[in-house]
């Protein structure tokens, strides 16, 4: 009988169209069913894409067009009908007479329904193409992912967490606080609470913002907004507050966690109001100071106490390993060391990690003696034993370069996402690493150091890849250690300074890191004969012409977010400068040719700056190993011949620049560099990120011989992107 159907099909091809169409439903029913199944899957994917887009638009407080909502309704109806059709009709028996004969009428019906459904789906898919880009920003990360498994569920903490959760369920409570000394575990407890309330559906959204000792209200607003969804585009503080308040009013069941509050905070200036009858928005504070919480009219304060003796000892054993109980005498010494940690989690974690798997009794004796003799510097809200423990962990770091990397992390602001590559470049510039020939080798060394510092509980993971964080308590101690005469650090980078710190002399400083106010004026004629690292940020005032005359030993110079019209002529005296960082500087900086006089420069970064030209003088930097032009969106020209002169170049980052000159191109327009200029030394390249307007500009004789090289190449013919990277070949 199947043969008969095939013959009928052939006849149908020659019959008038209406009849042929009906015959087609019969003979092509299997093909039609397969096609509708394929289109059904496409429609499911399209519906999901539009749903995500609409969800993002809602997060961003954008109005969804009625036609989008109508399309979603039509798709839902169509999908439900298709599901029944595929599960019931298609799976039904298409034979009759006990399987001896095909049921032609039923097959005809299936073929027709499949064809009509396919046509309807195609219309919906075509219309849906307009709606899957309603919103393109990724939704915020879930709060539950921030804890990184660091929270220790001590029995004493379980009780306290349950009490906090009970208070958050109370309709009469809208602001509560967790209080305790630095290093007691307030932040990790707050993150665990955030995770719990999300899991228990107690709140729909949870926002966490770090306040810190010198709060920046705009950054606090941005952190809260990022967790809730809407992006704050307003410039003024009041405008941002109004927008954030509007978001909170429209939201239901929101928990805002304000971490590390030092002084009473003006919540209304941020855009947070509390005390409303519905209490849909609740606030959880963490602070070292109960009086601060009282002044903010907190309704209930939960003090966090020390660990119990049993909890402290068990935690110490976990950190130090079972080798500390190898014998009764060793166990006794380890117990005495643990007691010096004062039952404080951060102290136990750092000391225990420093002594991990150590079974030498004399070293436990030395550790105990060192902890007892420590003379902590006074830091508000910080227990002296925490200071002593972190200092002990620092002293027990195995090498000088590890200690130097640790101290460099305190050069950045509190709660800052520290780029690991900045540590690499600063370390290479300061000659911290022995027996290192390439920047790639230094990078591997720094990543290993960072890994060890995290294992020692002196550094933390960041939510961003290739970044790390430093706990505020650890940073306080690190700054204290770094400020000692032998290290010579001066760090003032948590608030914009109205003026440079008043000092009798600057001659003892080896590293200075300052966050300046917008109108901070720079001193003239500073004498800093020992200074090797200078990091300045956020200033619109010009640098004095003789700024660097008394700083001839500088090896690392970082000027970030500066509004400079020109670099001071005195920069030419920095004959020992190895690393120059001019990042996110304004378009006022038009001429950087003076940099060509820095003959020993090895690393030069313009990342994010609004420069328009890399002048020919940069070609004089014959020692240059790294050139970073990433995010230089306004860059129009790399002078021809510059790259060919940089014969020691190992790393080039120019992913946003695509105005390369083709080989053999003459005259006309701007005289730009050719990508072929790097061919003579391509064998030594270790990192390359570039964009080319055409694949024709990729030289055929370009050979990257180093198997460990990392590269990312984007080729864009007529807006069609081809991306190549070191993982795709």
TrEMBL record:
Q: Which residues form the AAA+ ATPase domain?
A: 172-302
What name does the UniProt record give this protein?
AAA+ ATPase domain-containing protein
Pfam families in alphabetical order: LRR_14, NB-ARC
Task: Tell me the SUPFAM superfamilies matching this sequence.
Answer: L domain-like, P-loop containing nucleoside triphosphate hydrolases
Keyword 4Fe-4S carried by entry: no
Q: What Gene3D superfamilies does the annotation carry?
A: Helical domain of apoptotic protease-activating factors (1.10.8.430), P-loop containing nucleotide triphosphate hydrolases (3.40.50.300), Ribonuclease Inhibitor (3.80.10.10), Winged helix-like DNA-binding domain superfamily/Winged helix DNA-binding domain (1.10.10.10)
Any idea which UniProt keywords this protein has?
Answer: ATP-binding, Leucine-rich repeat, Nucleotide-binding, Plant defense, Repeat
Family named by the database record? Belongs to the disease resistance NB-LRR family.
Superkingdom field = Eukaryota
Supply the source organism's classification.
Eukaryota, Viridiplantae, Streptophyta, Embryophyta, Tracheophyta
Molecular function terms, GO-annotated? ADP binding; ATP binding
Record GO biological process:
defense response
> PANTHER family under this entry?
AAA+ ATPASE DOMAIN-CONTAINING PROTEIN, NB-ARC DOMAIN-CONTAINING PROTEIN-RELATED
* Species of provenance: Juglans regia (English walnut)
